[in-house]
C-alpha cells in the first residue's frame, strides 16, 4: 500500500462494454480480487434507468389502448407499470449512491474535486416520486371510473 497513485481528474467516456467491467477490491489493482458488491451496484445503476424507460413506454402504449378501448383494466395496468418504473428509478438512484459511498471508502477525493451530486442526480431523485404520483393517479382514475361505470349500468337497468 506504500505505492502512490497520481489521480487524473479529467472526464473520459466509457464504451458499453466498459460499463460492465468488474470492479476490484482495491481500485486500480487488478490482483486484489473482484468486489462483487460494487460491480453489481454499478451494473444495476446503469441498467435500471433503461428498464424504467421501457416500462414507461409500455405503460404509455397501454394507456393509449385504454383510451381507444374505453376499458378500466388497461388503466390499472398503466398505473402498475408506472409504479414499477418508479421503483426502478429509485433503485437506480440508491445503487448509484451506495456505489459512490463504497468507492469513497476505498479512495479519497483529489484536492480540487468536490464530491457533490450533479443536476442529473437531482432530476432522478425528483422523477421517482413523480412516477409514484402518476401511478397513484392512474389507479385512482380507474377506481373512480369503475364506480361511475357501475352507477351508469345500474341506472340503465332500472
Could you characterize what this model shows?
The chain is an all-alpha fold and 158 residues long. It has one domain: Butyryl-CoA Dehydrogenase, subunit A, domain 3. 68% of the residues lie in helices and 0% in strands. It is built from three helices and no strands. Helix 1 runs antiparallel to helix 2 and helix 2 packs antiparallel against helix 3. The N and C termini lie far apart (85 Å). 17% of the residues are buried.
Could you give a quick summary of the protein structure above?
This protein has 158 residues and is mostly helical. It is built from 3 helices and no strands. The protein has one domain: Butyryl-CoA Dehydrogenase, subunit A, domain 3 (Up-down Bundle).
Discrete helix count: 3
Structure summary, number of beta strands: 0
> Largest beta sheet, briefly?
none
Secondary-structure element series: HHH
Strand content: under 5%
| Distance between the amino and carboxyl termini | 85 Å
Q: What's the CATH topology label?
A: Butyryl-CoA Dehydrogenase, subunit A, domain 3
Q: Percent of residues in helical segments?
A: 55-70%
Mean pLDDT: 81
Q: How would you describe the oligomerization state of the chains in this entry?
A: single chain
CATH class: Mainly Alpha
User: What gross morphology would you assign?
Assistant: elongated
Low-confidence stretches: 151-158
Radius of gyration, in angstroms, nearest whole number:
23 Å
Please give the CATH architecture: Up-down Bundle
Structural class: mainly alpha
Tally the structural domains: 1
Amino acid at each position: 500500500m506504500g505505492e502512490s497513485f497520481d489521480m487524473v481528474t479529467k472526464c473520459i467516456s466509457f464504451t458499453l462494454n466498459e460499463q460492465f467491467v468488474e470492479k476490484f477490491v482495491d481500485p486500480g489493482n487488478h490482483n486484489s480480487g473482484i468486489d462483487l458488491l460494487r460491480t453489481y451496484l454499478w451494473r444495476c445503476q446503469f441498467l435500471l434507468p433503461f428498464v424504467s424507460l421501457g416500462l414507461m413506454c409500455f405503460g404509455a402504449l397501454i394507456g393509449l389502448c385504454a383510451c381507444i378501448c374505453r376499458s378500466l383494466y388497461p388503466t390499472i395496468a398503466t398505473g402498475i407499470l408506472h409504479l414499477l418504473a418508479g421503483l426502478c428509478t429509485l433503485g437506480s438512484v440508491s445503487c448509484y449512491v451506495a456505489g459512490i459511498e463504497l468507492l469513497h471508502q476505498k479512495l479519497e477525493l483529489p484536492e480540487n474535486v468536490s464530491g457533490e451530486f450533479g443536476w442529473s442526480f437531482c432530476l432522478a431523485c425528483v422523477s421517482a416520486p413523480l412516477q409514484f404520483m402518476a401511478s397513484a393517479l392512474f389507479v385512482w382514475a380507474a377506481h373512480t371510473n369503475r364506480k361511475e361505470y357501475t352507477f351508469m349500468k345500474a341506472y340503465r337497468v332500472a
